[in-house]
Specification:
heterodimer; A: alpha/beta; Rossmann fold; seven-stranded mixed sheet; 4 helices; B: alpha/beta; Nucleotidyltransferase, domain 5; 2 domains; five-stranded mixed sheet; 11 helices; 10 strands; 17% strand
Chain lengths: 140, 338
């Protein structure tokens, strides 16, 4: 199933994230695909909020994985941009996260396509015609 | 002990660098070996991504031996063992921790886990022998942007931190967009020198009048929007101008918040630390602002700005002096508050 959602502001993106969070189950993997500045971390912040995580969600670029507990489900936030390939994912022990008890959000997921589980939710983010407009194509 | 001085052996593996250091009495560096300075190509036959723990594992014994040789010490001289316990990449941290624990167990010497940010602050104790708390610290790196009230060696309070991207991360990402390469801070620093910093006005995000938190995601997106819209209009981008304007906007925010925090806390000393502390515009603008306010500014030399084990050893020394020692059950923490 594919859904197309247009967000015209950060506020609308947050609403989308909150709504998506309601349906998340243990073991869900969300693949975020979009350019720099498209709002991948911003959407993840909203997902975390929707899961009831009160901790500040920051960009995982530096640490590659950030873990957040304290919500309805644990959240594992990945940024795989700096990884050189799938082998690096094995070294990080990704299977424990992808097939674990929490929700995984993977930024730049197109870089590790082969490793994403069958039931992955794909969210492609594109720039819209306005500066703050973003187009979300959600496939699940 | 060596010459009646307490010897600290320290390990840092929280992210990309594998580093081992030896210090005498906490502030005197006897050796500080960082794996990126070693000819990795020659030793391991090719460049390997340093992100994964396997590479730390490959490097650590070699770096340890190098550190011992440079310091002219043997394991019997070591009194305490310090290691970064977080924040960072757990798999990477664990290599340093497992190594430190092994040495602690084998020698029966105290093990001290150190917060990475506390380490960055301590880099200044090594650089400036006269520096003593209290002071205000601004830590800016690829992974962190923090304002910390350093009340005493062990009493630290975070006044503000980033809500999205770290300052150094914004530099890296903008450098990527401008096709300048990695790492972003020196690349942008260099190219910005030939640009007009007022060519493009990127919006400074201050998050409210009293907030000491930072947000750099918006500035990054501002640069992207600018570059994209110029491209759509078929115009060429002046990379020098964009880099200079971006750099000024980030530095502006850092300086503004640091001075706000200084006023709030009443500190007359400001300590800069972390990889972005090497940025020349940041140093220059902070210096000007501090001079105006009668604040003394301190920052470490380049090799103490980036991740290194000497700063961790210094932090471990002061923790040990304060009676804080860890046991062999100590864990690694991806996120860890000060």
């Amino acid at each position: 199933m594919t859904k197309k959602i247009i967000s015209k502001s950060e506020k609308q993106t947050e609403e989308l994230g909150l709504k998506l969070a309601e349906e998340l189950k243990p073991g869900t993997v969300i693949a975020l695909i979009g350019d720099l500045g498209s709002g991948k971390t911003a959407l993840t912040k909203a997902l975390a909020k929707g899961l009831g995580i009160e901790e500040q969600v920051t960009s995982p670029t530096f640490t590659i994985i950030q873990e957040y507990s304290g919500g309805r489900l644990p959240l594992y936030h990945f940024d795989v941009y700096r990884l050189e390939g799938e082998e690096d994912m094995y070294e990080l022990g990704y299977e424990d996260y992808f097939y674990g008890d929490g929700v995984c959000v993977v930024e730049w997921a197109d870089r590790i396509k082969e490793l994403l589980p069958k039931n992955t939710i794909y969210i492609n983010i594109d720039y819209g015609s306005q500066e703050n407009e973003r187009i979300y194509n959600i496939k699940y | 002990m060596k010459d009646n001085k307490l010897i600290t052996l320290a390990f840092e593996t929280s992210c990309d660098e594998t580093s081992v250091a030896l210090l005498a009495d906490g502030r005197e560096v006897l050796s500080n070996v960082i794996s990126s300075q070693i000819d990795v190509h020659k030793v391991f036959g090719g460049v390997v991504p340093e992100i994964a723990s396997r590479h730390h594992l490959n490097n650590i014994n070699y770096v340890y031996e190098q550190a011992m040789n440079e310091a002219g010490l043997s394991l019997e001289d070591v009194d305490i063992i310090g290691v970064t316990k977080g924040p960072g990449l757990v798999g990477a941290l664990l290599i340093g921790i497992a190594t430190a624990k092994s040495f602690a167990f084998a020698t029966n010497k105290p093990l001290i886990g150190v917060h990475h940010i506390q380490g960055h602050i301590c880099a200044n104790y090594i650089e400036h022998k006269e520096l003593e708390p209290p002071f205000l610290a601004l830590i800016v790196s690829g992974g962190h942007t923090d304002l910390v009230d350093v009340k005493d060696y062990q009493q630290l309070e975070v006044l503000g931190c980033t809500r999205d991207d770290a300052a150094g991360e914004a530099f890296d990402k903008v450098a990527r967009v401008l096709e300048l390469g990695y790492p972003g801070v020196p690349k942008i620093d260099k190219i910005a020198k030939e640009g007009n910093p007022h060519a493009v006005e990127f919006k400074r995000v201050l998050l409210g009048k009293d907030s000491l938190d930072f947000s750099f995601s918006g500035i990054k997106t501002g640069v992207l929007n600018y570059v994209n819209s110029e491209k759509q209009k078929g115009k060429d981008i002046n990379v020098h101008d964009v880099a200079a304007s971006f750099q000024l906007s980030v530095v502006d925010v850092l300086v503004t918040k640091a001075l706000m925090a200084a006023t709030k806390t009443g500190h007359d000393k400001l300590v800069l630390a972390g990889g972005v502390a090497a940025n020349s515009l940041l140093r220059k603008m902070l210096k000007e602002a501090c001079d105006k306010e009668g604040i003394s500014l301190y920052y470490p030399s380049l090799d103490l700005c980036t991740d290194n084990a000497a700063m961790i050893g210094c932090a471990a020394y002061y923790k040990y002096k304060a009676g804080s020692v860890d046991d062999l059950y100590m864990d690694a923490y991806a996120t860890l508050s000060l």
